[in-house]
């Protein structure tokens, strides 16, 4: 069982909706009730926030701000970016990139951040495990149980 759950952009977008679906609300409440630390990584916040701002979804932006404050926020660090650069290079050497070479590879950055948390068991909650699980533990959010 993970001690820390990092929310990828998919689940974060779902819970940042002003009226999120019951299944994601219940899932999040169960994790928190089990004393599992659920954090909002800065890169996932960026991915969700930019779309909310573009669409002028101000209530969702406020909800995202609330989640950062109540759950906890995990900023990008130099150490995380160094790990992400290594992950990015590794996938390209193997011919299996996680994003187009001209894009900012958010999956590599999220994995880099998760990889820097070494003192506790971490899992990334996502809707698509394919890219992230190459580097760090990742599960579809619905499969992460307390």
- Hey, roughly how much beta strand do the residues contain? 5-15%
Q: What is the gyration radius calculated from CA atoms? A: 15 Å
Which structural class should the secondary elements be placed in? alpha/beta
Percentage of residues in helical conformation: 40-55%
The major sheet is characterized as: 5 strands, parallel
The end-to-end span amounts to: 7 Å
Overall geometric form: globular
What topology, given as strand order, has the largest sheet?
3-2-1-4-5
Mean of pLDDT: 93
Number of strands: 5
Question: How would you describe this protein?
Answer:
With 146 residues, this protein is an alpha/beta fold. Helices cover 53% and strands 13% of the residues. It has helices at residues 9-16, 22-33, 42-54, 58-71, 78-93, 106-115, 129-132, and strands at 4-7, 37-41, 73-74, 122-126, 138-140. Strands 3-2-1-4-5 form a five-stranded parallel β-sheet. The radius of gyration is 15 Å and the shape is globular. It starts with a strand and ends in a 6-residue tail after the last strand.
Features of this protein?
7 helices, 146 residues, 5 strands, alpha/beta
Outline the fold blueprint.
Layout: E1 4-7, H1 9-16, H2 22-33, E2 37-41, H3 42-54, H4 58-71, E3 73-74, H5 78-93, H6 106-115, E4 122-126, H7 129-132, E5 138-140
């Amino acid at each position: 069982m993970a001690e820390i759950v990092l929310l990828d952009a998919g689940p974060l977008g779902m819970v940042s909706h002003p009226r999120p679906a019951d299944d994601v609300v219940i899932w999040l409440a169960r994790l928190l009730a089990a004393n599992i630390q659920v954090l909002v990584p800065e890169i996932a916040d960026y991915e969700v926030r930019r779309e909310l701002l573009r669409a002028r979804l101000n209530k969702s932006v406020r909800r995202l701000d609330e989640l950062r404050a109540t759950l906890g926020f995990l900023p990008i660090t130099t150490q995380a970016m160094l790990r992400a650069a290594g992950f990015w290079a590794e996938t390209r050497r193997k011919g299996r990139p996680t994003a187009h070479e001209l894009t900012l590879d958010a999956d590599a950055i999220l994995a880099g951040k998760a990889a820097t948390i070494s003192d506790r068991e971490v899992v990334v909650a996502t809707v698509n495990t394919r890219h992230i699980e190459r580097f760090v533990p990742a599960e579809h959010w619905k499969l992460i149980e307390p």
